[in-house]
Amino acid sequence: MPKINGMIKNPLFIFFLSIALMITQFTFVPKQALGAANPAVVSGSTYKIVNVNSNKLLDVAGSGTTDGTNVQQWAEDATRAQKWVISLTTDGFYRIKSSISNKVLDISGMGTTNGTNVHLWEDNGSEGQKWSINTNSDGTFTIVNKYANKPLDVSWSGVTNGTNVQIAESNGTGAQKWKLTLEGGLQSKVLGGYWTYWPQSPIRIRDIDPNYNLIYLFSATPVGGAPGTTGAVTWNTPGNGRGAATNLVADINYARTVQGRKIILSVGGANAGITFENRQRSQNFINSIVSIYNQLGGFDGIDWNNYEGSVSANTDEMIWISLELKKRYPGFIITTPPAPWRAADLTLCTAMVQAGALDYAAPQYYDGPGLNDPAFVVSNLDKWVTALGAEHVAVGFGVSNQANYMTVNQVVTAWNQIKAKYPKIRGAFDWEIHMDESRGWEFSKTLKPLLSN
């Protein structure tokens, strides 16, 4: 076959070669950085997802809750239709769930072509419902579907309300760039303390040392005693020696709205475990939490303190309850203080984090032989961070003159080692606030400056 400059000279060959090159040019998709957890995203948290080009929010059309409800962009209106729970899956992608319906962002018909519609659908675990969230050089995010390998896109770069959202070939425009705004949820670093109801004259909530940015209300306990007759819980009214009970609702509101603190209702406690053998007990629990929420004028989350000793956790039901509460109250925080030595507790917390049902676990290193040893704390914490990720782990301390509690100096020793090893550790709590008050707030005043150092 004749050649020119070493190349085959054949019109038919050249024609097909040209077609092949054109096809390659127009169909080649650059490989995306898929399947890697993004440290900028707090799994299980609620976000507003804002398009860079239009400054409008990812929105559920008509606040719909059925399969196939369309997703669009719309000006911010503060409704739950614009709030999304983003949770890491076990394979390193994200599930993006509407807070109004518990349904997830899904590509229509598992389509892969440009313009494939994006809508809501029941969570089925498919790759069409998984997304990578990649950070761009300008700090925005590109949200790429795993199955189609195409990013979330505003149709024709539209800027008006109701413009459709789809997937399309990556083009680097603002129509495919998004900002994630954390809605409510946790502070980046938490310093918590347990405020117990039983002292005769507890300090008022608003007067707690300001270094505490999260306060656990301890506690709501099971109706009928452990493990509960119905699954419901009831709030225990605190002592009123300094006006804590009389002013409780006003003080909770002041702490949340003026002081910027998070108020978490702890449920259970020693000899107050709660079990959830069936969905009816779980629903009764939710109903009671809603009742207490209304009674107290609102709070920011619950702390699962319901399993200990002979009372085992009901993992599936606790996950269901947690997700239902997060759906009802966007930004709702779920925490738990597990026993650091118990494998079953680690298994529970791992399952809950993976399901997007737990913001952090805070193993409690006090009130047990050897738990007050800083070396044990640092060593034991390794398995919790490995399983949950540092951002989902806090450290539970107890400062007291009692046996198996730490001194503040021991807390500092442990914390400095932990922070050096795990800079993204979520924070710490103290058992308990009234003890810290009696000691001149030595825990909160000492530890708060060390949280971010």
Automatic annotation (TrEMBL):
Q: Which SUPFAM superfamilies match?
A: (Trans)glycosidases, Ricin B-like lectins
> Per its UniProt record, what Gene3D superfamilies does this chain match?
2.80.10.50, Glycosidases
From which domain of life does this come? Bacteria
Q: Which InterPro entries match?
A: GH (IPR017853), Glyco_hydro18_cat (IPR001223), Glycosyl_Hydrlase18_Chitinase (IPR050542), Ricin_B-like_lectins (IPR035992), Ricin_B_lectin (IPR000772)
Report domain GH18 positions: 189-453
Which GO molecular function terms does the record list?
hydrolase activity, acting on glycosyl bonds
Query: What Pfam families does the record point to?
Result: RicinB_lectin_2
Q: Which GO terms describe its biological process?
A: carbohydrate metabolic process
Mind telling me what this protein is named? GH18 domain-containing protein
* Record organism: Paenibacillus whitsoniae
